[in-house]
Write a structure and sequence with these properties.
Blueprint (H helix, E strand, L loop, with lengths): L4 E2 L7 E2 H21 L4 H12 E3 L1 E23 L5 E5 L7 E2 L4 E5 L2 H26 L3 H34 L4 H30 L3 H27 L1 E3 L4 E6 L6 E2 L17 E14 L11 E6 L2 E13 L4 E3 L2 E10 L11 E18 L4 E3 L2 E7 L5 E5 L1 E6 L2 E6 L6 E3 L13 E2 L1
Antiparallel strand pairs: 1-2, 3-22, 4-11, 4-16, 5-7, 5-10, 6-9, 7-8, 9-11, 11-15, 12-13, 12-16, 13-15, 14-15, 16-21, 17-18, 17-23, 18-19, 20-21
Helix pairs in contact: 3-6, 4-5
Length: 435
């Protein structure tokens, strides 16, 4: 069936569907014109200002200071012998838990044992000599000395009797003076011999002289000291754990010659002067910037995230703060030691971590986006929108900065709108320097 047409004076006949389409087109054009119609100048300016500024407000903020650091051992030492020697026993391996006093290694002591046997023999000999000197002479020796005195007395009496007789003969002229002199000399000799034997008897009865006893005692002391020295060397050949801990590294193997030097203290590298490394306990050393160190205090709570466990947060507490700063590449930081309250069973020495120091909560802190802060003519400040929407540089005093926001201590009020960007042609003539 053909569609009906509507006859209008002076118009070409049109189908009904074309009239309906024309009506819809007119409505769409009217809506488009309405939408694209320019805002009023005031409406357009307020809309633009609203998109490039933000209002200053107050928030309840918990101050957090961030830092990075490393897990370290609290006690860490390399163990070595006191004297050069050959390693004979090494019963432990890296990862073994040990107790204080436990033997961790032994050096060869065969030569020391031979020296000890010799020193002990000398000690026994010196002790016997001392005992002999202190005890004095035997009764047999005393009786023998007494007999020698009696014999000397007899010889002296005989010589005296003969001398008296020959003196009488000499007075009568029966013998010459020379013969008499011989008998005088013999009598004197027997008298001297008697005195000598008497002194020997007295010495034997009284015992050893004090100086002989002292010399013998000194010999015993010297022998005992030599034995003690060698015994100490043998004891020191057994390397014992100075504290409870874990063996972290072994540097020597059985049969190796270990020569201790002054560098064998707590270095973490293999060296011929060390046998093994022992560590105990874990803590975290965190580098905190100079600007944020004032927000860190002893006993402060710390949240720790290790690169090895990115989805876990461990707890810690500030143990100590270094009294002196470290300056590297013109960056000043302070080292903060953090005691671990959890995670000691998972964290290992040398792991890299990120730390967040949780400080006090500031109620109603006035904060602004950090990107809005800049320096102009050497002053920190922000660009504040005036009543006409123009940027006006306003100096401010700032507090902490975290998570892209900065605390404003003075210079702004709640409700002030600060510029985050500038409309075309409205940038300040003196461009600020980013904060």
């Amino acid at each position: 069936m053909q569609p009906k047409t509507i006859q209008r004076p002076g118009l070409w006949p049109l189908p009904r569907w074309l009239w309906g389409a024309s009506t819809i087109g007119v409505i769409l054009v009217a809506l488009t014109v309405s939408i694209l119609r320019p805002f009023s100048p005031r409406q357009s300016r307020e809309a633009v200002i609203a998109t490039i500024t933000t209002a200053v407000n107050r928030e309840s903020v918990t101050v957090q200071v961030e830092g990075s650091g490393t897990v370290v051992s609290i006690d860490n030492v390399n163990l070595s012998p006191k004297t050069t020697g050959r390693l004979s026993i090494l019963p432990v391996e890296p990862g073994d838990e040990v107790k204080a006093g436990q033997i961790l290694a032994k050096m060869d002591t065969s030569s020391l044992q031979a020296e000890l046997d010799q020193a002990q023999a000398l000690l026994v000999q010196s002790q016997a000599d001392y005992a002999k000197v202190v005890a004095g002479n035997r009764s047999e020796d005393i009786k023998q000395a007494e007999a020698q005195v009696v014999a000397a007395e007899s010889r002296m009496e005989l010589a005296s009797t003969q001398l008296a007789r020959y003196q009488t003969l000499a007075a009568r002229g029966a013998i010459s003076q020379n013969e008499l002199d011989q008998y005088v000399s013999e009598a004197r000799s027997t008298e001297a011999n008697l005195r000598e034997t008497q002194e020997q008897l007295a010495e034997i009865i009284s015992g050893s002289r004090p100086e002989d006893i002292a010399a013998s005692a000194a010999a015993v002391t010297a022998a005992e000291a030599q034995v003690a020295i060698i015994q100490t060397q043998i004891e020191e050949a057994s390397i014992r754990a100075p504290f409870d801990g874990m063996v972290t590294q072994t540097y020597a193997t059985i049969g190796a010659i270990v020569t201790p030097t002054t560098t064998a203290s707590s270095t973490a590298s293999a060296t011929s002067s060390s046998i093994l490394a022992l560590s105990s306990g874990l803590e975290v050393e965190v580098d905190v910037s100079e600007a944020n160190i004032g927000q860190v205090a002893v006993e402060q709570v710390v949240e720790i995230v290790a690169d090895a466990f990115p989805n876990q947060t461990f707890e810690g507490r500030v143990k100590r703060i270094a009294p002196e700063a470290i300056i590297e590449n013109n960056v000043t930081t302070f080292q903060v030691a953090v005691e671990l309250l959890s995670g000691e069973d998972k964290l290992r020495s040398g792991m890299t971590i990120d730390a967040i120091f949780i400080s006090d909560t500031i109620a109603d802190a006035l904060v602004v986006p950090t990107v809005a802060i800049a320096t102009q003519n050497g002053q920190l400040g922000v660009q504040v929108a005036d009543a006409q929407g123009n940027p006006v540089f306003t100096p401010v005093t700032v507090g902490f900065t975290q998570n892209g926001a900065t605390q404003i201590l003075s210079g702004l009020e709640v409700g002030d709108r600060i510029f985050l960007d500038f409309p075309d042609g409205k940038a300040p003539s003196s461009a600020p320097t980013p904060f």
